[in-house]
Amino acid sequence: MLNRAAVLGLPVSHSLSPAMHTAGYAAAGLDASWQYTAVDCAEGELAAFVESLDETWHGLSLTMPLKEVALTVADRVDPLARALGAANTLVRGADGWTAYNTDAPGITDALRTAGAGAGAGTGAGRSTRMAILGGGGTARAALGAAVDLGAGVTLYVRRPEAGEDLRPVAHALGVPMTVETWGRAADAATYDVVISTVPKGGADALAVAAWAAPTVVFDVVYDPWPTPLAESARRAECPIVSGLDLLLAQGVRQFELFTGVPAPVEAMRAALQNRV
């Protein structure tokens, strides 16, 4: 029997997830039994779509605008996804669909690979200092990563209400968080970890920041790459993480949730790199 999975969103035609997962199936010897596709799905259509799926469907990857409504569609919600108020993954089990968030642990995986958290908490009274640029959906996931890294967070936002929206999330996660205006975002250059969650071009003005190496700089944009922000950090010899690294890290976790098989990480990485 063919096992099915897909990425859903609107629009979703640009997604690299089908290439990544399909390469993973081939490398793991699952290409004859697993298929991964892309499906356009609006927020108001998700419940009916999930209800229509037969027993061949095992997993769904969710992009915008489906990450919040996914919590209401699922039969069960993983505690992290509930605390974040967003899920990017639905996994079918014997008792229905469970919602997960693999974005937050994916950010953690990518940051740790780049050295984040290594030694940041070793000094007396010292903890990892994380700056998050922007207050949207990816900022929620970044707060989840802050838990794993034992980080306190400063959130830099253009709209004060965006910061207020994230306060309950930080509180639910137990993450110390302060909110600052976007005009002070250049201060982030002195932090241990900087995560830019703003759209393409949104952080370009910060490319002149005086980075305090070895700040780990993560820009969720991956096309075009490097961004001016990432390039300025590279010149300062800071470790850099891209949105492609996050796509891979969260996708690896989804692959394993869907299939129950260890993900062939390098094959999935190569598939992404070949598409950008």
From TrEMBL:
Annotated pathway: Metabolic intermediate biosynthesis; chorismate biosynthesis; chorismate from D-erythrose 4-phosphate and phosphoenolpyruvate: step 4/7
Xref: PANTHER family: BIFUNCTIONAL 3-DEHYDROQUINATE DEHYDRATASE_SHIKIMATE DEHYDROGENASE, CHLOROPLASTIC, SHIKIMATE DEHYDROGENASE
Organism field: Virgisporangium aurantiacum
Residue ranges of every copy of the SDH C-terminal domain listed in the record: 243-273
A cellular component term, taken from the record's GO annotations: cytosol
Coiled coil (residue ranges): none
Keywords on record: Amino-acid biosynthesis, Aromatic amino acid biosynthesis
Pfam families hit by this protein: SDH_C, Shikimate_dh_N
Annotated ranges, domain Shikimate dehydrogenase substrate binding N-terminal: 7-90
Database matches in NCBIfam families: PRK00258.1-3
Name of the protein in question: Shikimate 5-dehydrogenase
GO biological process: aromatic amino acid family biosynthetic process; chorismate biosynthetic process; shikimate metabolic process
UniProt KW Amino-acid biosynthesis keyword: yes
Keyword Electron transport: no
